[in-house]
Amino acid sequence: MKKKKKTFLFGIILLVLALGLGYAFLTTTLNISGTTDVDSNTWNVYWDNVQVIEGSVTAETPVIDSSKTSVTFSVHLSKPGDYFAFNVDAKNDGTIDAMIDIITKTINDSTTIPDYLVFDILYSDYFPITSKQELNAGSKETYHVVVYYDTQINPDELPTTNQSFTLSFGVTYVQKDSSAISIPRPIDFATDSWSIINNAALSGNTSAYHVGDIKEVQIGDYTYHLRIVNNSTPDECYESGFSQSSCGLIVEFVDLYVDPHVMANSTAGGWPSTSMRNYLNTTFFNLLPDDLRSSIPNIHVVSSNSTFGNIHTYETYISTDHIFLISLCEYSLCREQYFAEAPHTRVLDYYATHSTSSDYKKDNVLHDVYDPDPYLTRSGYTQTTAYYGISESGGTIGLSCGYNNAYYFAPAFRIGQNSDA
Question: pTM to 2 decimals?
Fold first, then answer.
């Protein structure tokens, strides 16, 4: 028995060794080969073409260094209202598309800026500079740099001693990848965001928008149509005291609005003292979408009551409004001898070529059908207890103030709110 057991074990060992020796002689070599062509490319992003903006305080023109990656300037601002501004091009003359990676802005190595000093860098058409924005090969973007001694400050915020600041702005461009974004520019009033429209209005770059263009806005459960009624700023708009309700990009509600809880009260003190003005600039203003509301500035509004019949004195009323009603003079419906505001405002672009009779508004708040009810203007009637309104025929009508009189109205506003305001 023992002899047989030894023979069995030895046979197993020889078999294992034989298998191992046989496996060692089986080999395979796998290869990959090919050719690669690499195109030549250049990376060349740099500053170019400095242009000082007219109106800036006298100073030396900013200097671009020999590497074209740095711009330096020195300026003295002696009093509130002084500013220094210039444009400079960021150019991509290479063959590789670029995009912004990192943006830094400091004053004296700090991101905290004194209240009396404004240091802004934007694109020259007022669009903000943000990371991921593209600068494609062969293109350029013009940067606008401004340093401003602010006037909108309290006396106790002014510096008590002379101050010297080191201002720094840096923008790092890297090769463009799939996360890159294009710079939003105005294309169509109907589809552009309010942010794009606001930036276009601030820069005066509104040629893509046309008088009569329509845009929808949602308020609560209802969709309203808004229309551009003015898109010009003639020289008279820059005159002291001129009503800004007829200058720049003015938008009105095409669809009438009504709130049964707001009544038209006395016009004895003019538009500034009316409950309608208070309602529009508080309750109604806060109903608007956030992005629209942040695009609407407070503007200088001139109004007056009719002196026809010698009920009112020939005087203007001044208010500062986000929301207003268009006046008879802005509708081209006032007789100048009866309205003191006439020399201080103008007919809106839209109503210079469209009559109120051919373009009567409709109400979609209650029933989505044509509604012949009149609607309010901000002009006081020949009595202290009435407004002027627009009738179905497009003419004027007196609308009495009173507890039970909740009238339709077509709110209007200007677009162009600076984020620093």
Answer: 0.71
